[in-house]
Amino acid sequence: MNKDYQAYSDFKEGVNKGLDLAKCSFEENLEKLSLSFPDDDQVEGVRILENDFNQFLDGITLSKTPNCSEERLDGVHTGFERSKKIFKEFIKESFFPMNT
C-alpha cells in the first residue's frame, strides 16, 4: 500500500470520526441549548445556537496517540468544521424555511 493512499484513508477516517464526535457532542449537550427565544429575535437566537454548538466542538481536545496519525487528526478537525456548517444550515432552515 502506498503512503499517499494510507494518508488519504487516515484523513477520511478522521473526517468520519469528527462527524461522529460532533453528533455525540450535540446529543450530549442538547439540553444545554436554548431552543426557545422570542419570535422577534430569531436571528439572535440562531446566532446563539450556532455559537453554542461551535463551542461544544471547540471544547473537544484531541491528542495524537500512537494509533492516530497526523492525517487522521486533520480529518477529525475537518469533520468538526463540516458539522458546524451542517448545523448552521439546519438551524437556518428550521427557523427561516422561506429564506433558504
Q: What attributes characterize this protein structure?
A:
mainly alpha, 70% helix, 3 helices
What does this protein structure show overall?
With 100 residues, the protein is an all-alpha fold. Helices cover 70% and strands 0% of the residues. The chain has three helices and no strands. The chain has helices at 3-29, 42-58, 70-95. Helix 1 crosses helix 3 (70-95) and helix 2 packs antiparallel against helix 3 (70-95). The chain is elongated, with a radius of gyration of 16 Å. The model has no long low-confidence stretch (mean pLDDT 83).
Offer a quick outline of the entry.
The protein has helices spanning 3-29, 42-58, 70-95.
Uncertain segments of ≥5 residues (pLDDT<50)? none
What average pLDDT do the residues reach? Answer: 83
Based on secondary structure, the structural category is mainly alpha
Number of helices: 3
Question: Percent of residues in helical segments?
Answer: over 70%
What Rg, in angstroms, do the CA atoms define? 16 Å
Strand content range: under 5%
Total strands: the figure is 0
SSE string: HHH
Shape category? elongated
Distance between the termini: 45 Å
Q: What can be said about the biggest beta sheet? A: none
What is the fold's blueprint, element by element?
Blueprint lengths: L2 H27 L12 H17 L11 H26 L5
